[in-house]
Amino acid sequence: MSGRGRLPIVDLPDATSPRSGEFAKSARTRRRILDAAIGVLAREGYARLAISGVAAAAGLSRAAMIYHFPTRRALVEALVAHVTRERVAIYEAGVVALRDRPDFGERAVDLAWEQAEFPVFAAFAELAQAARTDAELRAIFRPALAAFDRARREAATRIFPDGLRGITGFDLGRDVVRFLIEGVIQQDGVVHDRDARLAALRAFVRLVVNSPEGQALLARAVAEAAGAAPPAGKGGS
After folding, report:
1. Nearest-CA neighbor of 36 among 54, 53, 63?
2. Of all residues in the chain, what percent are helix, strand and coil, respectively (each to 5)?
3. For the segment 80-126, what is each residue's pLDDT rounded down to a tens digit?
4. What are the Cα distances from residue 123, in Å, to 31, 47, 112, 220?
5. Sequence-distant contacts of 221-227: CB under 8 A, at least 24 apart
6. Do 86 and 38 touch, CB atoms closer than 8 A?
7. Judging by beta carbons within 10 Å of its beta carbon (0-12, 13-18, 19+), is residue 173 exposed, middle or buried?
8. Binning pLDDT at 50, 70 and 90, where does residue 191 land?
9. Above pLDDT 70, what percent of the chain?
10. Model pLDDT, residue 3
11. Which pLDDT tens digit goes with each residue over 139-161?
12. Residues 49, 50, 51, 53: what is their CA dihedral angle, to the nearest 10 degrees?
């Protein structure tokens, strides 16, 4: 993960930055630890996230690990910020690469599916799930989740083409794509006719955000949620 540029999220610290009196080597070691922790979290889950296991995955001694993260809580606090920043950075880098493509909307949907299979996505999802029942983690994760939502929207608002950014249901369309894909990936409950059903879901989210009919449906949903009538000619019955 170290080759990408970083997207600053003002609300969250960069857990890999050198602390006072430290050299860049210490920052690289912390990144090594946090990237290893992402792998442990994605593979084994939050309950099995332990200092000893992360140290082993990072190829470090326990003493070296404890120098940077003396407690599990210290590791979790840094990991929450790191995972959140990484996920936004991956999202922005992928969307920027599509900026000038005529099929931006379709490729953006495909990109969302592809990124949902990255280890950092699984780590983020594991933190979100564990935070539901772990009060200590929830207190750490909820502000990061809010920062993620703001940063992701800011990136989309800045990068998406006018034709998509200007539709009435822009935010709703993004939510449909994000939460449908996240639900499918996290639950992995599509078993019967898996390939055909996933292909249909993928086609569905493309149509929702890209076709005139889909955009009219988004506008109608936004209008109904606001207690207003659908715009004229935009999907009214």
Report:
1. 54
2. 70, 0, 30
3. 999 999 999 999 999 999 888 888 988 898 899 889 889 999 999 99
4. 15, 12, 16, 35
5. 221/169, 221/172, 222/168, 222/169, 222/172, 223/168
6. yes
7. buried
8. confident
9. 87
10. 38
11. 999 999 999 999 988 888 888 88
12. -90
User: Which two three-digit tokens encode residue 42?
Assistant: 């994605």
pTM passes above 0.90: no
Say if CB 96 and CB 159 are below 8 A apart.
Answer: yes
Q: Which residues, 6 or more positions from 172, have their beta carbon under 8 angstroms from its beta carbon?
A: 218, 221, 222
Q: How far apart are CA 84 and CA 45, in angstroms?
A: 17
Distance of CA 198 to the CA centre of its chain: 20
Q: Which amino acid would we find at residue 215?
A: Q
DSSP state of 36: H
Both tokens of 222, joined, read: 């936004």
Task: Express as a percent the part of the chain with pLDDT over 90.
Answer: 53
Place of tokens 């993004």: 174
Q: Tokens representing 23?
A: 């050299």
> Quick count: other Cβ atoms within 10 Å of Cβ 183?
11
Write down the H helix ranges in 116-134: 119-131
For residue 108, CA distances in Å to 120, 122, 201 come to 18, 19, 14
- To which residue do tokens 């200092």 refer? 51
Query: Using CA atoms, how far apart are residues 61 and 54, in angstroms rounded to an integer?
Result: 10
What's the mean pLDDT in 62-68?
92
